[in-house]
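Hey, sorry to bother you again with one of my protein questions. I've been staring at a protein lately and its backbone has me curious. I owe you a coffee for this, so here goes:
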Amino acid sequence: MASSTTILFIPGAWHSPQCFDKVIRKLETHGYNTDVVYLPSVGPVIPHSDFSEDVNQVKKQIEIAADAGQRVVVVVHSYGGIPGCEAIRGLDWETRQRQGQPGGVVHLFFCCSFIVPEGKSLISSFGGDDLPWFQVSDDRLLVTPATPKETFYNDMNEIDAKRAAETLEPHSYQTFHSNITFEAWRHVPSTYLYCLKDEAIPLPVQKMMVEEVAKGVNIQTDVVDASHSPFYTAPDHMAAAIKKAAS
């Protein structure tokens, strides 16, 4: 089954998908196909006014794998869950099979990512205020994290955390205000990886999204003793959890 499965990785804000390299290598040794999304909103020449280009890029890459007959597992990290969910509309396995099309999304894997209800944005679903560690430009078009090492990489040593932080790029702030119109987790089997040491999305918030926002939906859960970035510090655990979701 591994050879008929493509695992598509979508990073969070500010991040390159190269952050998933350790996890990807482990999954590829088990025969899985992998692909990564470079979000257009990260490090843009011109900041984006909404998340539409991110959504379109994810959709395009899902369609390529699905049209090749692949079972697609979509792995989303942090902000990546916003365009990731939106892009899955009409591309889940059951819908495509009914339409006589090959392939489709068979599983959605949230890595300390956002579960946002229809009609809400990342910002509006959490009260409408910026997080304290957001550094938003005066024109409200770009945002950077003020404390990336403490917020994203608090379980990494100083050298590795500094190296990871240096890979970050400014993110198009207005994508955080784009409203979701498709709750993919209601239509696709899903798993949520709780990260116990997460300072960006603390565990109570992760649980609130799974247990309250997605109340009534059977989302499987896994737990890892890691920060917001388990792909760096717990790649074995994360790869094993994705492999279980993909089976």
User: Anything to note?
Assistant: The beta strands are 5-10, 33-36, 71-77, 104-111, 134-136, 142-145, 171-172, 190-195, 220-224. Residues 37 and 121 are 21 Å apart (CA to CA).
